[in-house]
Design brief:
2 copies of one chain form a homodimer. Chain A is of the alpha/beta class. The first copy, chain A, folds into 2 domains: 4-119 and 293-308, ATPase, nucleotide binding domain (Nucleotidyltransferase, domain 5, 2-Layer Sandwich); 131-288, Nucleotidyltransferase, domain 5. Chain A contains 10 helices and 13 strands. Chain A has helices at residues 41-58, 98-106, 115-126, 186-189, 191-202, 209-217, 221-245, 260-274, 277-282, 294-308; strands at 4-10, 14-20, 26-33, 66-73, 76-78, 83-86, 94-96, 110-114, 135-140, 144-150, 153-155, 249-253, 284-287. In chain A, α3 packs across α10, α6 (209-217) packs across α7 and α7 (221-245) packs across α8 (260-274). The longest helix of chain A has 25 residues, at 221-245. Chains A and B meet through α7 and α9 of A and α7 and α9 of B.
């Protein structure tokens, strides 16, 4: 009988766990609230181990039915060695040998990677990018991230932090960014910027982006313009990535991509107008397919490929 | 006895050929003037074949002493199949099966790639990038190009046109570029722009960039500022590449790099101030080492690795 995997997606808000069948179907899911476990990495790790055991047991399996655990984390992860180097938004996580700790407790193989890298891996093998060799997956949310599949391999970079599309500058004299840069792409389309801009445009403090989606779908002129401007920035950022990497596909995911239908035309138009001819002719820009489950499914793929090869 | 190679670097002005020893030492060189052979690809190919034969014979070798020929060309090259898909600046070159034609005539293996890819390969194996796994080589000239070595492999992209660093936008509303884009990096630091700007700054039509180097070295305030501004644009472009690709090294080559000493401090400062922490900590920015011979040496490496493996 082929073995299942456990996919774990550690986010700033939730920790999602999924029991995944060999086919890539998620059999069962469970959730932890991240902020309940931020006092010490040990706390979070123990909760994770307990949750994995429950998830397995409650679904009529034993730990021996599990090929391995894959974990995506929001930060700098030494994937080959299984070490969390640094999580910027979860206190205390510096140089945590997460693989060793969990393997010792659960006695099954553990693999890990940056969360956006796993989303890219998931979309590549099970989602919008099936069958392609060169693709870029971008996630639009509070942060704007990216995962790079180049020549059929996930490219991690020298220090495991490649893919920071959100911090490619769009303008040399643009607004200052938390990262220390100026005019970063994220400063134009990250959720914080969009919410601040929406509050101004619609004259309503704390307006939610979902409301502006709804307004746009009813043809509200300001909402349509708001999303068209956002899409123009996205298109301009993609031009740089497309000219540099000559990918076959760009996959757009994350919260803001929920509104992709209002942005699609503009994004495509900007790229068609501005990207180089050859790059342009071969790149497809599509919406992510796996939604919230991309992280879990990417973790599943990581386990599968690490154990059974590509 | 280990075999030599022939490295060929086809440029818009000259075609450089070198007979290269297995060690990577260039034993002898020769040159053709490109514009004498632009009426038909056949013309250029025939001249190339004649030049290869002479170069071999005049150095006391026979064609049997040559392991293979490597050729760099300025355009879109299907390297695995040995086909020149398109050369934008040499008329008539569309879908030319160059490998097949030359192999038929010379009866030795022929390999080819984009010229900037071969410069990157040369600098990686024999120049500034020795021993690294992730590096970006940029060439500053009339065109601004780039070659990407990622995870120890030359990355060519889906359609063999990856690396167009010169066409990553620096500003969303920047000046229009020949490529169809706006605010492309090349529009700020390509030779044409620099010469036009220099003519204005120094009030002297047709001023050569070398003159402005000389002025800068004598402390001329306008010249120093001119190169500092150029270096700032270069730094800003590198920030995007560094954040996205997390390379271990950036190698700066090409004509404008002849003036690297006046730009180095500023480039380093901009990157130190603006690139992300982890990326910043591990990237070295250095000048190319192989100068004019990088193309020939890269072609040599291409032959060596294609025949004998990495």
């Amino acid at each position: 009988m082929p073995l299942c995997t456990i996919g774990v997606d550690v986010g700033g808000t939730n920790i999602k766990l999924g029991l995944v069948a060999p086919s890539g179907k998620i059999i069962a899911k469970t959730n932890l609230i991240t902020k309940s476990y931020v006092h010490h990495p040990r706390q979070l790790i123990n909760a994770l181990v307990v949750a994995v055991r429950s998830l397995v047991r409650e679904n009529g399996k034993t730990i021996k039915d599990i090929a391995g655990i894959g974990i995506g984390l929001p930060g700098q992860i030494n994937s080959p060695q299984g070490i969390v180097i640094f999580l910027p938004n979860v206190p205390g996580w510096r140089n945590v040998p997460l693989r060793k700790i969990i393997q010792k407790q659960l006695k099954i193989p553990v693999f890990m990677d940056n969360d956006v890298n796993l989303i890219a891996l998931g979309e590549w093998k099970l989602g919008a990018g099936k069958g392609y060799q060169n693709l870029v997956c971008i996630t639009l949310g509070t942060g704007v991230g990216g995962g790079l599949i180049l020549d059929g391999v996930l490219y991690r970079g020298e220090g495991f932090v490649a893919g920071e599309i959100g911090h490619m500058p769009l303008n040399e004299h643009g607004p200052a960014c938390n990262c220390g840069g100026r005019g970063c792409f994220e400063r134009y389309v990250g959720n914080r910027t969009l919410m601040a801009k929406a509050a101004k445009v619609f004259g309503k403090k704390n307006i939610r982006l979902e409301e502006t989606f709804a307004l746009a779908s009813r043809g509200n002129v300001r909402a349509v313009r708001f999303w068209r401007e956002t899409a123009t920035h996205i298109g301009n950022a993609l031009v740089g990535v497309i000219n540099l990497l000559n990918p076959r596909m760009i996959i757009i995911g994350g919260g803001v991509a929920g509104n992709y239908k209002f942005m699609e035309k503009t994004i495509q138009k900007v790229v068609r107008n501005r990207a180089m001819t050859v790059q342009n002719a071969m790149v497809r820009i599509v919406r992510a397919r796996l939604g919230d489950e991309a992280g879990i499914l990417g973790a599943h793929i990581l386990v599968k490929e690490s154990i059974f090869g590509r």
